[in-house]
Amino acid sequence: MFIGNIVSIFIAICCSYGFYLYSSNTGYVAHWWPKEAACKIPSYKTQIVSEDPLLVYIDNFVSEAEASQLLHIGKTQFAPSKLSTGASGEAYRSSQSAGLPPSDPSVSCVGSRALSLMASLTEPSDDFGIPQLVTYQPGQQYKLHYDWFQESMRYKDGRLCNRVASVFVFLEADCTGGETYFPRIASTASSLVDDGKAIWNATFEGIMFKPIPGNALFWINLPDNGKGDKRVIHGGLPVHTGTKTGMNIWPLKCEP
User: Fold this and answer.
1) What residues form the membrane-spanning segments (predicted)?
2) Cis peptide before 131 (omega within 30 of 0)
């Protein structure tokens, strides 16, 4: 039932917008993004790569102008990426990251669009982490990891929260290498391979997605049993030349 409900969302491609609340005490954003953020939505389309676990490829999720604006917002904020423990972990994650202000109209616009894909996964009381830019230069990578936490994280308001789903948007891809790799996703998404968007063959397990500006990936981290799905382990392969920059958006499922 859970997967069927989510899949139907993508088939319908419904867009829903709600109200916006930002708490200065918690530093996190309430479930809905602002109605004011409603903006011109690109003519994007979705393709289901895997139903279980759910992994969806999205063409033209952000426009070229939106990508440029998001990169401009975060360009002065980049700092070495850290692991969820707060450690630098440079050998494991050698990129740079920048938090994005959720109140910025461009950030809100893309955030509301992401929520149109996953509104049924969270409750109005759940929070959103701050959207994040991540950029990779030659030789930089993020080895295999989960977006969900092994143990729910305690946020400033005292609640325990975890990342129920992920949206990763490619914003800048003037590079070679830097594919996003899911080693445990079995897929025969031949059309994506034929279009040059993915790599899938018998020489390795899983599927790789090439960084293509404007396109995105959506996947479920916590199925309906509430436990982290180990099948969505993924990594950012090393960039060989040039620059790759993406945007992470994570809805948080919190305990009452």
Assistant:
1) 6-23
2) no
In degrees, rounded to 5, the angle at the alpha carbon of residue 164 between the alpha carbons of residues 63 and 117 is 35
Distance from the first to the final alpha carbon of the chain: 24
**Contacts for 46 with CB less than 8 Å, ≥ 6 apart:** 10, 13, 56, 57, 58, 59, 117, 218
Do residues 80 and 90 touch, judged by C-beta distance below 8 A? Answer: yes
pLDDT, tens digit (0-9, with 9 covering 90-100), for 239-253: 999 999 999 998 778
Domains and CATH numbers, the chain: 35-255 (2.60.120.620)
- Residues forming a β-bridge with 130: none
H or E element in which residue 247 lies:
strand 239-249
SS3 per-residue string spanning 153-201 = EECCCCCEEEECEEEEEEEEEEEEECCEEECCCCCCCHHHHHCCCEECC
Residue 66 is classified by DSSP as: H
Give percent above pLDDT 90 in the chain. 51
